[in-house]
Specification:
The protein has 330 residues and is an alpha/beta fold. It is built from eight helices and 15 strands. The strands form three sheets. Strands 3, 4, 5, 6, 7, 14 and 15 form a seven-stranded mixed beta sheet that branches. Helix 1 crosses helix 8 and helix 2 packs across helix 3. The longest helix is centred in the middle third of the chain and has 21 residues.
Length: 330
């Protein structure tokens, strides 16, 4: 039996009625028992993702109840194979906090196969912030077959997934444009210059056609779905691909003729289908680029780092559109 102390965790036991009335409680848990192929991780920092909040609102039908939410983490291995004890690790996965207990807790049991050392230049807060946005961006661009020849439009480029897409696409040598709904310029890191367009005041379709001699975008990464679906379709070049990862409205108008005449492809990405093992493999690809500074983690703002006692406030801020990466520190 472990001699490690108890710790606190969030628990959701029933669907919350709305964002103003989140049914999230703080409980005390024993360190979970681990199997021969697992480690026990003390979580030091864990990102809060929109999916964490949506799941508490009943928007994830396959979510289990009750459970500890949370999909990303940075932490320290406390039990497991001797060569891993004390290692500073990071991770993230679609099953964590959805179909099993997750990372918004002091203690996390995880398979050894999903354990990876965090980048040496990362703080724990940075390690806990990267997961879902970069995993989603990486998987979407991989499925789309991104190449240096692509001309890419990122819809909602200042969102966390949008910023991750921009970093990865510019790192690959693609030409990248982004669009938002105000005149704020791009606030994230990029590996090459990008142009940020404002859909509230600019004719984005015409601008992008002009910049590509009428051809349009070879790849659109639509991070929010329905709000940009019409624009995304209009700016797609022949044989273009559109990646979709989320939406507000599930049923939206769709011009089938435009779709097949353009020989377009739509690619659906669901990061919830990627396990913590899958996330670890993606982290293997990303880690060297984070360590050499090509890729950069999201800025950590102290005001957006919360103790568990402020979890409701943290959760609410994520769906209310904060520009900061929100972190819980169990």
């Amino acid at each position: 039996m472990t001699s490690l102390p108890q710790g606190r965790a969030l628990r959701v036991s029933e669907i919350s009625p709305d964002l103003d009335h989140l049914n999230v409680e703080i409980v005390t848990i024993d360190p979970p028992a681990i199997g021969d192929d697992q480690v026990l991780i003390e979580v030091m920092a864990a990102g809060v993702n929109p999916s964490d909040v949506k799941a508490s609102l009943g928007m994830m039908p396959h979510a289990t109840w009750p459970r500890i939410p949370g999909r990303d983490f940075g932490g320290i291995v406390r039990e497991g194979p001797s060569e891993l004890i004390g290692k500073q690790v990071w991770g993230g996965g679609g099953e964590l906090g959805i179909s099993r207990d997750g990372t918004h807790s002091r203690w996390l049991a995880l398979d050894v196969a999903a354990v990876r050392e965090k980048p040496s230049n990362f703080s724990m807060e940075q390690a806990g912030s990267v997961g879902v946005p970069f995993i989603t961006a990486h998987d979407g661009l991989r499925e789309a077959g991104l190449s240096a020849d692509d001309v890419v439009l990122v819809c909602a480029g200042n969102g966390k997934v949008g910023q991750a897409v921009i970093q990865l696409a510019t790192m690959a040598g693609a030409t990248v444009y982004a669009v938002g709904r105000n005149d704020q310029g791009y606030v994230g890191h990029a590996c090459a210059p990008i142009e940020m367009l404002d859909s509230s005041t600019q004719d984005v379709e015409q601008i992008l056609r002009d910049k590509t001699d009428g051809k349009g975008m070879s790849l659109v990464f639509n991070t929010v779905g329905s709000p940009y679906f019409d624009l995304a379709n209009k700016v797609m070049a022949k044989r273009a691909r559109q990646v979709l990862i989320s939406t507000f409205d599930r049923a939206i108008p769709f011009d089938i003729l435009h779709f097949f005449r353009g020989r377009h492809k739509y690619i659906g990405i669901d990061s919830l289908a990627l396990t913590s093992h899958d996330g670890a493999i993606i982290f293997d690809d990303l880690k060297p680029k984070f360590e050499d500074g090509t890729l950069k983690p999201f800025p950590i703002v102290e005001a957006a780092c919360h103790p568990l006692d402020d979890a409701v406030k943290a959760y609410q801020s994520v769906l209310r559109g904060t520009s900061n990466r929100v972190i819980l520190k169990p």
